[in-house]
Design a protein that fits this description.
Elements lengths: L9 H18 L3 E7 L14 E7 L5 H13 L4 E7 H4 L6 E8 L7 E7 L2 H10 L2 E4 L12 H18 L3 H14 L5 H11 L5 H12 L10 H19 L19
Parallel strand pairs: 2-3
Antiparallel strand pairs: 1-2, 1-6, 3-4, 4-5
Helix pairs in contact: 1-2, 5-6, 6-7, 6-9, 7-8
């Protein structure tokens, strides 16, 4: 589904449109579409802690000098951009290790990180944008990409699991997102998945999830490291994943999916 701009602050809209126009000038005739997904599209972006997730689709590969210009454009932007640049051909690859043109990530320094090659988790980004994205330029993302087959998507999510506790901010909510995806075969935001888990998970995890939701709402990072509580909820999520995959009854499997809210089409 493509999300309207409702819920996105006017200042963020303005900066995104300005950035998209400048990016289109650099990419030139290769440009096909620019898409924002993740927290901005799902209506829960926090300017303090959230990156702006973006996919840029091009007709043909981008020369090295243009890639450097794009990295410089990233560096001048006030947005925390995490952008993947792909060609139309690469967008059609159903491979866990997806070839991409390059990825530009915020580095916390004046110059962002630019890396070329394969992207181990691009299928997750592609599916996220397929389900929920804002079109900054070009045709809707669904006109260009298809849904990622679930076996591939589930494999990517399982590969991601070992990295959640040591590397991710808001790890408890990220684990809820993964569990929700396995149960309902679709993605939801951290906030939505956390609220779902309050009723879908065992009651013993309610205080941890409520605390994570409160910190997320306040824009606080929850990166205290892999505590015993977090290890426990990780094990619980793994149980849900295994039982979902093997068809073993689990209370989370009977929890209803989150209804689509207004403004979604």
């Amino acid at each position: 589904m493509t999300i309207r701009w409702s819920g996105c602050p006017s200042d963020l809209k303005r900066r995104l449109r300005r950035y998209a126009a400048a990016l289109s000038d650099v990419v030139g005739e290769r440009h096909v579409g620019i898409y924002v997904h993740g927290s901005v599209a799902r209506g829960c972006h926090n300017p303090t802690t959230s990156d702006v997730d973006m996919i840029v689709v091009m007709r043909s590969p981008c020369p090295a000098d243009r890639a450097e210009q794009l990295a410089a454009l990233h560096g001048r932007s006030s947005l925390r951009l995490d952008a993947t640049f792909v060609t139309l051909h690469q967008l059609g690859h159903d491979e866990a290790l997806t070839p991409v043109e390059f990825v530009i990530k915020p580095s916390g320094q004046s110059k962002p990180r630019l890396s070329r090659g394969s992207h181990g988790y691009f299928l997750l980004d592609r599916q996220d944008a397929y389900e929920c994205s804002i079109t900054l330029a070009g045709v809707p993302f669904r006109n260009l990409a298809r849904a990622v087959p679930w076996p591939l998507l589930g494999g990517c999510l399982e590969d991601l699991l070992p990295h959640i506790l040591p590397k991710f901010k808001n790890p408890a909510l990220m684990l809820c997102r993964i569990a929700y995806a396995f149960v309902h075969r679709e993605f939801r935001s951290k906030r939505e998945a956390g609220r779902w888990a309050l009723t879908a998970f065992d009651d013993r995890w309610r205080p941890l999830i409520e605390d994570a939701l409160n910190k997320y709402a306040q824009g606080l990072r929850d990166d205290s490291g892999p505590t015993e509580e977090l290890r426990g909820i990780e094990r619980h999520c793994r149980e849900i994943i295994v039982q979902t995959r093997d068809g073993i009854p689990h209370e989370a499997l009977s929890s209803p999916p989150i209804a689509s809210g207004p403004g979604r089409a």
